[in-house]
From TrEMBL:
It comes from the Eukaryota. This is Sodium/myo-inositol cotransporter. InterPro entries: Na/Glc_symporter_sf, Na/solute_symporter, Na/solute_symporter_CS. The chain crosses the membrane at residues 37-56, 68-92, 99-121, 141-163, 282-302. It is found in: Membrane. Belongs to the sodium:solute symporter (SSF) (TC 2.A.21) family. It comes from Hypsibius exemplaris (Freshwater tardigrade). PROSITE patterns: NA_SOLUT_SYMP_2, NA_SOLUT_SYMP_3. The lineage of its organism: Eukaryota, Metazoa, Ecdysozoa, Tardigrada, Eutardigrada.
Amino acid sequence: MLSSLVSDLLSIFNSASALFTIDIWSKIRKNAQAREILIVGRLFNVILLAISVLWVPLIQQVQGGQMFFYIKAIGAYLGPPIGAIFVLALFWKRCNESGAFYGLMVGLVVGLIRMGLDFTFRSPECGIPDERPAITRDVHYMYFAFILFTVTIVAAVVVSLTTPPSDVEKLVRTTFTTRFDETRRPDDFRYDRRPSRALSGVPPIEEFGCLETDDVTGSNGLKTDPLDEHEEERGSGFLLRSRTKLVDFCFGNAAPTQDEKDAHDAHLAKVSSLDQSPGAKLFLNINLGLLLILVIFVFILFSQ
């Protein structure tokens, strides 16, 4: 458990430090050197650690100081907007970037308000009348999570319908209904080595003029490839072969054969394929239904 906790904290601190230094500090100090960015990232981690220590008294005031219930309560205030936008964008093609952004902002504000009320109005002791606001007194945090989920979806739908829709080519293979769409996206040329394209006979990237190189005319009047001249400069013969074998032996940098490349591409195409056999589809759908029933049951059970 301790190693798992340390691993989680390490990933959190690294991610937070990277987000702050790249997205915020780089905007403030446009010419910051690598050493400065490293120091700022370390100092930001120290600040996060201090905030986490100062946050302990707040944990003691919420959910009776029980860590598990505190984590679930905070997750119910901040997590539902993310899940709502993900589900909405997955199943509704009309959801656009503006709808997703403002839906998240509305959900975040509503969740922070509820979290602030929990921190401000503590649960009374036994025998003392509960005079907290109704939203904290009568609405369990799990029920509030469902309300917040619904509010986020409504906000995202309203904003999406009042703003221009997303480009059609951006929806290819990004939603549930377009997951099998084989239409070529404009940005597909960036992924020329994707197995599905190599195995489906789609024209290579060179046909679109993205990787064209200019020929160079040599002294003999024949056109040569600059890359060939570069290879010649590296040397040839026994010394070059020996150096190549030594590097390959030490670093495992041997170039794969064409058969190995084809087998690897076929494997990637198979594991990334969405096609399922009837038996596998039935098995997965049954388990999906059972898991949904179990989750709803546990949700209701622990909301009492």
